Amino acid sequence: MPILEVKNISKRFEDTEVIKDISFSLEKGETLSIIGSSGSGKTTLLRCLNFLETPDAGTITVNGEVIFDAADPMSRSEKGIREKRLHFGLVFQSFNIFPQYTALQNVTLAGLLLAKERPDYKARKNEIQEEIINNAKAILDSVGLSSKLDFYPHELSGGQQQRVAIARALALNPDILCFDEPTSALDPELTGEVLRVIRELAERKTTMIIVTHEMSFARQVSDNVLFLDEGVVVEYGPPEQVIGNPGEERTKQFLERYFENGNA
Amino acid sequence: MNIYIASLFEGFWLNIRLFILTLVMAIPLGLVITFGSMSKFRPLKWLVRTFVWIIRGTPLMLQLFVVLYSPGLLFGVPMKSRMTAAIVAFVVNYAAYFSEIYRGGIESIPKGQYEAGAVLGMTKSQVFFRVILLQVIKRIVPPMSNEIITLTKDTALARVIGIAEIIMSAERFTKQGLIWPLFSTGLFFLVFNGVLTLALGWLERKLDYFRV
Ligand SMILES: Nc1ncnc2c1ncn2[C@@H]1O[C@H](COP(=O)(O)OP(=O)(O)O)[C@@H](O)[C@H]1O
Ligand SMILES: [Mg+2]
User: Fold this and answer.
1) Rounded to 5 degrees, what are φ and ψ at B114?
2) How much is the pTM?
């Protein structure tokens, strides 16, 4: 059974249908890259998965449980969404880490708040908090930030901030971790450290969906690649096929334009 | 000479009382007005914004008279105390100004901060109180400081409805041919604002540990 099944998802803003009838599925431990030109609907798709947008049609199924069904008004209710969106993590293009908290506090904040809802919270408060903090430290260590625990965001480089954001998403242990162009806002010399962290996550079989313009990176880390154009899935398959030997004319044109612009 | 100084202090005590009462009430009332002016319910939003526009678009001096006289004229129940009228006028006026500062502060926080909190499973109120609020406070401390300094000087306006604040107290002596008490009122404001500036500067430095 796939960990994620997206079926016939559509989303329109006013008159324009931004994503159209998108379906795909993802196996546990798989890395899926989504490529496509700017404006093709990649961000909107990730936002739909994270309940930042409500799809107009379609279903989202995680581990066999339908967590969203556009036809069912219940699945649009604010209640329950909070729990369901925890199946997903999202790393934003612009990091969006919290400026008034240290790296460690950024990573622990949500976990500490969620823990208050646990039935055993009162009885084991100190123990639970300690667990969350130790877990956060271990994650920050794994993204190479063990020496920056008490640094505030403005004291960190963009690459370090994005790694804090990755750690923050990982701390809640999502089933599927989504990245929206995680290196697009970074100076070129800082993209490497972030890509390295994502590569390690892929090696450790973290289930991920990565929207990216880094074509060679996508080729190396992905199990599958999805090419999105004007809101529709044009081509889907292993990277050797979609990036290495595309079957569709539109994919070829996109890749040609990409490599012509001096990207390698 | 002692009677003059005692009289000035007595007058200035009224300025200080008006100042403190206005701040204590206008700071929270301003937040209520902000929520109204940012409401998704259009009629409420426009009602509140029109109200704020009127308050900010007319002189505080005029508002003092309106608050003092309109209860008697409209409802036949005259304002019992001039000080109450002054407090009401000042609180409403400053709450309107504060609400616009708050709104600017809230609207300047990037949408991504709310979204980052939401995708981490935080509730709307957790996002507001744990993520947004402190960033808003940091942004509004400088403009609020300006307004608060202005308020100290505005309290002198209360004399137009017969509050014996410091300048009115001093003017009594001017009529007797003594000008120095009037001029020396400036010292009271300067010293008070000096202390206030230090306190507000301290608050600003307290929030210096992060950047927004
Ligand atoms: N909130 C919105 N309101 C209206 N149009 C939007 C909104 N968000 C995205 N769009 C439009 O949807 C299209 C796809 O956007 P997006 O998903 O951000 O594409 P991508 O991430 O592939 O660049 C664009 O044309 C964009 O202008
Ligand atoms: Mg995008």
Assistant:
1) -65, -45
2) 0.92
